[in-house]
């Protein structure tokens, strides 16, 4: 191993029950905090892999609790309280609905404009989209990435003007997209329209025009979600390999 995991107090664990057995859902909640730590640059790949391996090997809360002790709670972008991973069981689907509700935060937004004149700009990562965000590209390009963003309202407008340039709006799965822009000797992407939004998810309206340029709209999962899916496939592969070793592979006598 490259580094030692953060040390915790003797016998420390949620509820003071270090020997209580952890479930797969408990291990997955810890793994999610680790993925956020990697995506935000708080862990390097070696530390992430080491801690993830320890997470999937953990059998009790006492073994899980120290793994995320030096990481902030999921989504925190400044120093804050340590990530206390809840071991409370939740109804199926509650996490998805709660995630969207927690991302519609109100307020004015952290950025209102993006401008690229013979240059480029990016708005990505953890930021708050205002009710109306305006962007302009002239002989340049810009990216408005909403995959990890919070939203000032349940409906936000991204107003795009591309003149001999290009703008790209990236939305996460579950968000409803409405495109009202037009292209004049240029293109405005309407490909993501008609996809139903998830319960509680915000609505993103893309407006404006493109003149000798283009405005693209695409739907992509976040880096943290890609890591989660990759590790899920890795875990399934390890479980199948273990089942073969134990003679428990389906279809075997």
UniProtKB/TrEMBL annotation:
The DUF1707 domain covers which part of the protein?
20-72
Return the InterPro entries for the record.
DUF1707_SHOCT-like (IPR012551)
Q: What are the start and end residues of every segment in region (Disordered)?
A: 1-27
Q: Which domain of life is it from?
A: Bacteria
Cross-referenced PANTHER family, in alphabetical order?
Answer: DUF1707 DOMAIN-CONTAINING PROTEIN (PTHR40763:SF4), MEMBRANE PROTEIN-RELATED (PTHR40763)
Q: What is this protein called?
A: DUF1707 domain-containing protein
Q: Which organism is it from?
A: Streptomyces tauricus
């Amino acid at each position: 191993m490259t580094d030692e995991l953060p040390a915790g107090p003797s016998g420390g664990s949620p509820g003071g029950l270090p020997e209580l057995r952890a479930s797969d859902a408990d291990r997955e909640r810890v793994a999610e905090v680790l993925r956020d730590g990697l995506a935000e640059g708080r862990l390097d790949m070696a530390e992430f892999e080491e801690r993830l391996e320890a997470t999937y090997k953990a059998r009790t809360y006492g073994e899980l609790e120290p793994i995320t002790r030096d990481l902030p709670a999921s989504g925190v972008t400044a120093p804050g309280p340590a990530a206390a991973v809840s071991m409370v069981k939740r109804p199926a689907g509650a996490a998805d609905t709660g995630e969207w509700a927690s991302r519609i935060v109100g307020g004015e937004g952290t950025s209102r404009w993006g401008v690229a004149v013979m240059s480029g700009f990016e708005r990505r990562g953890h930021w708050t989209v205002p009710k109306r965000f305006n962007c302009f590209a002239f002989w340049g390009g810009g990216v408005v990435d909403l995959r990890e963003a919070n939203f000032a309202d349940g409906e936000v407008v991204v107003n795009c003007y591309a003149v001999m340039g290009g703008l790209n709006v990236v939305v996460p799965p579950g968000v409803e997209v409405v495109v009202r822009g037009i292209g004049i000797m240029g293109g405005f992407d309407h490909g993501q329209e008609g996809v139903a939004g998830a319960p509680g998810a915000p609505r993103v309206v893309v407006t404006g025009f493109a003149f000798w340029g283009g405005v693209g709209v695409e739907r992509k999962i976040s880096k943290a979600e890609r890591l989660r899916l990759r590790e899920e496939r890795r875990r399934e592969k390890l479980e199948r390999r273990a089942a073969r070793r134990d003679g428990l592979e389906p279809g075997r006598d």
